Amino acid sequence: MKARTRAAATLLAPFFLLFTAVMVVPIGYAGWLSLFTEKQSGLGFGGTETVFSGLDNYTAALGDRAFREGFGVLLGYCLLYIPLLLTGALGLALLLDSALARARRLFQLALFLPHAVPGIIAALIWVYLYTPQLSPVVQAMEAGGTGFDFFSPEGSLPSVVNIALWEWLGYNVVIFYAALQAIDRSVLEAATVDGAGAWRTALAIKLPLIRPSLVMVALFTVIGSLQLFTEPLILNKGTGSAVTSTWTPNMYAYTAAFDRNDYGLAAATAVLLALTAALLSFAVTRLTGARRKEQAA
Q1: pLDDT (tens digit per residue) in 102-112
Q2: Cβ neighbours of residue 206 under 8 Å, at least 6 residues apart?
Q3: pLDDT tens per residue across span 133-183
Q4: Mean pLDDT of 256-278
């Protein structure tokens, strides 16, 4: 028993060391940094000094309207992005898994290629396609009488959602398709023999069998949505977009740290965002776990 315990500890040690180095230590340091602030002495000629401020940075962040509005933007983003991503990726994966699909590997590669493009490059590509003076897409839309301002206050959120979908849809299609391929083909054949059509087989047989993959993708998508940063940051730089420098909580923290040199406020913002992600992850896992128990009963 002791030998088995030592073997398990040896195999798990690299993971826990890496997890501590890249997750626990940075979050702990951010929590410590959030308790301090820098203040100038006298008339500002004596330099700055770091003083303990307790929870002042947290109250300052929560009391800032721009920070609270950033969470409102994230809520709207999640309500648009997550359902579109899950349903789109699942629908395409089911289509690839169906008997009607041809050239599956070609379509898998075509769908996955956008994910191989770095986020900054993808955002720059779409900024070009959103700019009226440059984009052939916008010019074609205007010629057809369906012009749309992708940089307007109403169009900024759909623009960011579209970029994120282009980046991540194919990646999740591959995950769902791999889960569908792992289903025992005899189960599907039995459903066909019993008279189940394609829709009934997909909804009543395939979806329940790939539920763990659905939960995993939903969980990772929620966490990734809270980290929204790259796409709106590119839209904010010189495009005339309605996206501001504090449009999301991550952008708020970035602005506080590198534009205002207020590292305590930035650290407090990061801790609050990490706590939000942890709570949402816990809620998703508990909700899916409760549903699994109800179905088992």
Answers
A1: 677 788 788 88
A2: 94, 97, 180, 183, 188
A3: 888 888 888 887 777 888 888 889 999 999 999 999 999 999 999 999 888
A4: 91
Supply φ then ψ for residue 220, to 5 degrees.
-65, -35
User: Rounded to two decimals, what is the model's pTM?
Assistant: 0.86
Report CA 37 to chain centroid distance, whole Å: 30
Q: Are 246 and 255 in contact (CB under 8 A)?
A: yes
Q: What is the pLDDT of residue 99?
A: 63
φ, ψ at 36 (rounded to 5°): -125, 160
Largest CA distance in the chain: 85
Cα gap 109→119, rounded to integer Å:
18
Q: Which is it for the CA torsion 67, 68, 69, 74, positive or negative?
A: positive
Q: What distance in Å separates the CA atoms of residue 179 and residue 213, rounded to the nearest whole number?
A: 7
Average pLDDT (30-41) is 85
